[in-house]
């Protein structure tokens, strides 16, 4: 397959070799180019022979890692692979109608797993795809959920979901590093099923580098979907006990816990969150594993370095219901050192998706406006987690913009990043 070159960076190695926008790239050093992985992998040599549609050119780079300067119509050089599954726990299937179209796209693309860290179920993949991962030595993130083939077919509603589990073993045997996740659904893959899955996956260490167990989450739009009970303190506690037993064993055998409960499981179970050291390299941070401990412990360390003062400051921190208790603790700790600080923490209930959704990242602009408008004096500014906004744009999930929220509330609304110092800086101004 040849891919269209849409741009050539001026002064780049490709430009110096005479490559023009509008030409098509078929191969590099004799290797067919189908997508961004092929392109990146085969561009590492210092001298490259590019087979274009009508000619061949030679490109020379100063360094193996230099970019040769070609641009393509999409990031992957072709279309993203969509998910073929109908998972019983899928969050996208629980979205309300009328949201922007991109939110309904389910990706299950191994290339994005390597390039952006997304998780894949392997059901879109062939033996040739796995062989390419092994050849290129690509580390991947795998949504496993269960290692029982029949149960996996049932949970993913895909007749191939059990058969492709063998790819995990094949990749492990060939030195491919994997981070794995399990969405824990009550009555499906918990209890003895969870034990089996953790036993199977930990047997593949160190190729399986980490395993996150995250609880199923439901919106109010599950009509027509299989019924799954939400976790309560008892079921979450039982899951944490199973996970902890495997984590303690792996810590003793390998020096790493490998298996981690999501923060939400600890909180639902009413358990104290472990110290930051528990999470090692925070391999599953983006999966909500260790976020609270990282913020709590880092906040204490950063705060100890600040010179206290008595300057008057008044502000509101708006966050999700799950994070509000932690934010209140941090606000109280900071106010103890900066005695002029008046910090109100407001837990925003998720009325857009339903109040069973408690994470801050799914808070919408309209929920912020509705609940903060009636909250009284907001102070000089409102702080919100940056995770509430689209990654590359100041817009919430319901397409309300940050400017609209500010204009309605009449105070600046400041998105705050994940680092503890960012929160302290935003509070202190």
Short description:
It is built from 14 helices and 15 strands.
Rg for CA atoms:
24 Å
What is the approximate shape? globular
Q: Give a quick account of the main beta sheet: strands, pairing sense, barrel closure.
A: 6 strands, antiparallel
Q: What percentage of residues falls in helices of 4 or more residues? A: 25-40%
Describe the structure.
This protein is of the alpha/beta class and 429 residues long. It has three domains: 3-72, PDZ domain (Pdz3 Domain), CATH 2.30.42; 92-289, TIM Barrel (Alpha-Beta Barrel), CATH 3.20.20; 296-428, Rossmann fold, CATH 3.40.50. The chain is built from 14 helices and 15 strands. Strands 1, 2, 3, 4, 5 and 6 form a six-stranded antiparallel beta sheet that branches. The chain has a five-stranded parallel beta sheet with strand order 7-8-9-10-11. It has a four-stranded parallel beta sheet with strand order 13-12-14-15, sandwiched between helices. The radius of gyration is 24 Å and the shape is globular. The relative contact order is 0.07.
SSE order and pairing:
Elements: E1 3-8, H1 13-16, E2 24-28, E3 31-32, H2 36-42, E4 47-52, E5 56-60, E6 70-72, H3 110-116, E7 119-120, H4 127-136, E8 140-143, H5 149-156, H6 166-173, E9 178-184, H7 192-202, E10 208-215, H8 233-254, E11 259-261, H9 263-269, H10 291-304, E12 313-320, H11 324-337, E13 341-348, H12 365-373, E14 381-385, H13 402-409, E15 413-416, H14 420-428
Parallel strand pairs: 7-8, 8-9, 9-10, 10-11, 12-13, 12-14, 14-15
Antiparallel strand pairs: 1-2, 1-6, 2-3, 2-4, 4-5
Helix pairs in contact: 7-8, 8-9, 10-11, 10-14, 12-13
């Amino acid at each position: 397959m040849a891919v269209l070159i849409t741009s050539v960076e001026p002064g780049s190695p490709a430009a110096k070799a005479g490559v023009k926008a509008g030409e098509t790239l078929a191969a590099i050093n004799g290797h067919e180019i189908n997508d961004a992985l092929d392109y990146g992998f085969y561009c590492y040599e210092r001298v490259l022979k590019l087979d274009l549609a009508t000619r061949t050119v030679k490109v020379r780079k100063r360094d193996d890692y230099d970019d040769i300067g070609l641009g393509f119509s999409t990031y992957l050089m072709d279309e993203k692979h969509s998910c073929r599954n109908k998972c019983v726990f899928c969050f996208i299937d629980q979205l309300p109608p009328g949201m922007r179209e991109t939110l309904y796209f389910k990706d299950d693309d191994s290339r994005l797993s390597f390039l952006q860290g997304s998780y894949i179920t392997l059901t879109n993949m062939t033996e040739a795809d796995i062989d390419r991962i092994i050849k290129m030595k690509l580390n991947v993130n795998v949504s496993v959920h269960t290692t029982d083939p029949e149960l996996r077919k049932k949970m993913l509603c895909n007749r191939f979901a059990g058969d492709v589990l063998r790819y995990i073993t094949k990749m492990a045997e060939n030195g491919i590093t994997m981070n794995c996740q399990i969405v824990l659904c009550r009555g499906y893959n918990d209890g003895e099923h969870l034990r089996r899955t953790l036993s199977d996956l930990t047997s593949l260490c160190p190729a399986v580098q980490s395993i996150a167990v995250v609880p199923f989450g439901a919106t109010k739009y599950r009509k027509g979907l299989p019924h799954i009970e939400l976790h309560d303190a008892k079921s979450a506690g039982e899951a944490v006990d199973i996970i902890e037993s495997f984590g303690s064993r792996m810590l003793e055998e390998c020096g790493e816990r490998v298996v981690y409960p999501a923060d939400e499981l600890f909180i639902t179970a009413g358990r104290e969150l472990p110290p930051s050291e528990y999470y090692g390299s925070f391999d599953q941070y983006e999966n909500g594993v260790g976020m609270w401990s990282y913020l709590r412990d880092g906040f204490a360390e950063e705060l100890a370095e600040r010179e206290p003062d008595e300057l008057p400051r008044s502000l509101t921190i708006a966050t999700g219901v799950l994070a509000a208790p932690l934010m209140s603790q941090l606000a109280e700790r900071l106010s103890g050192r900066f005695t002029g600080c008046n910090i109100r923490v407001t837990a925003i209930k998720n009325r857009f998706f339903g109040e069973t959704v408690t994470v801050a990242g799914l808070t919408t602009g309209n929920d912020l406006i509705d609940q903060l408008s009636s909250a009284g004096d907001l102070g000089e500014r409102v702080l919100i987690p940056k995770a509430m906004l689209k990654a590359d744009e100041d817009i919430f999930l319901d397409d309300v913009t940050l400017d609209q929220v500010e204009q309605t509330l009449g105070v600046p609304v400041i998105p705050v990043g994940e680092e503890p110092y960012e929160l302290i800086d935003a509070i202190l101004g």
